[in-house]
Design a protein that fits this description.
415 residues, mainly alpha, 24 helices, elongated
Length: 415
Amino acid sequence: MFAWDPEVVHRALEEGGKDDLVIHLCGQGIDSGLLSRAELACANTDRGRAYINKGEFDRAVADLQAALRQDPGWEPAHYYLGIARYNREEYDLAIASFNESIARDPKDASTYNLRGSVHNDKGEYALGVADCARAIELDPKMANAYGNRAFARNRLGEYDAAILDDTRAIDLDPANSVFFHNRGLARRNKCEYDLAIADFTQAIHLDPTMSAAFNMRGLAYSDSGDYDRGVADCTRAIQLKPTSATAYCNRGYAHWKRGEHKLAASDQTKAIELAPALKDAYHYRGLAYLDSNELDLAIADFSKAIELKPTGATDYINRGLALRKRGDLDKAVADYTAAIEREESALAYRNRGIAWAYKGADDRAIDDFDKALQLDPEDPQTYKERGDSLARKGDHARAEADYAKSRDLGDGQRK
């Protein structure tokens, strides 16, 4: 005669690696017709947990929903249903399940931490910080809660706070490669490239198969001017994860900085194939085309980058430069104006000034050069360009002063 023993099932779940046994035992119980509603809720929940462990999230959801039909107030079913839905990327449904779990057990730190992680994946970083903070209040030694809060704080631009949280997570769990990787991200965002590289290196030491750590170390090397190592690390990242669009994008960036425009464009094309909405890939391929004087291709890429992020100023400036080089001066002026409307910068004013000068509008050009120098008084090229406009207007004394200032600053050329 069949005898349902939940203790055997729970022990198998806790021991791990016995998911098939759990599924078999729970299935026997469910199919026996002998279990009470409460026992059925428990059996469906335990089988759902086993399916989660096996990565069979559709079956897990079906079992956990069955458990809740037996007992709508069964908190473990809400909790594990949230986990299954999270893994199916059903973020709103996952949050709803975690809400139900918290309503029944408001002192469980892990539920707040998981809900915070879902908020992070939705881009709701302030809510992620709040949930992880509550998890930490309930369990000050929960390393993952510090790590998840650090992730959210990094995305919010709170880099110092993120570094502190990741450091606390590392203190609690020094063998976790993700915490080192994420602290490296925050340090890179602070332009602390040597420290970032050290963190990514430690992440790789702990997990030599971590593609993301190679990818980001490669980018940090490129940020610090070591493009050879940048290419090498991103290549390793691609070997470990051939579907990583950002690794191709970052390697393409390093190739571009090395002046290898064809290789750069090729890598960005692969990145776009893998992730057609990756704005940076269009941006950097556009720069490679621009430097190769393939202006129509550059303009098309900058246009796509603008389409993907119309609030940004940089690609209006880049497209304006390509249009100016192609001789479309009115369109170039329009793009520089659009860039200035989004974010005033010396670069946008200077480039618009150059376009005005090409159009023969030296007064307007000088006005723009003046504004550029208010924002960046150390740019030698702007002094030179303003000097040219002043000379054309016959103001040779001021022109010579600008030329002298340009020479003092290095008479450099900036794009």
